[in-house]
Amino acid sequence: MLVCQCNVISDKEIEEIVLSFLKEDPWQLVVPAKVYRAMEKRGRCACCFPNVVDIIARVTEEYHLLLDRSSVDLVDVKARLSRLRQKRIGGRREGRSTGHRAA
Fold it and tell me: pLDDT by residue (tens digit) across 29-62?
């Protein structure tokens, strides 16, 4: 299917580029500009970008389903950030009590 009429780009070409990005790093953010840059083209009218975003989302979801990662491999981001914050600031914040209001 032709996705971009200005540059004559098919959905298969976009899928191949997105898969190559995901093979490099499965958790990277893939956006239309990055896909077009990899094909050495640029979005002219940008009418195809919503379709490209849909293709990126579909291919990424399918790729992650194929990886079939267990929940043990996944990282709880909120818990990790909380631990890093506690490590950085320590147990207390500037000596203030918990009931202190600045304003």
Answer: 999 999 999 999 988 888 999 999 999 999 998 8
Residue in 62, 28, 40, 63 with CA at minimum distance from that of residue 9: 40
| HSE toward the beta carbon, residue 69, CA cutoff 13 A | 11
What are the φ and ψ backbone dihedral angles of 3, each rounded to 5 degrees?
-100, -45
Longest dimension (CA), the chain: 63
pLDDT of residue 73: 55
Question: Considering Cα of 31, then 33, then 34, then 36, what sign does the dihedral take?
Answer: positive
**CA-to-CA separations, 24 to 3, 8, 12, 36, in angstroms, rounded:** 24, 26, 19, 17
90-95-101-103 Cα dihedral, nearest 10 degrees: -100
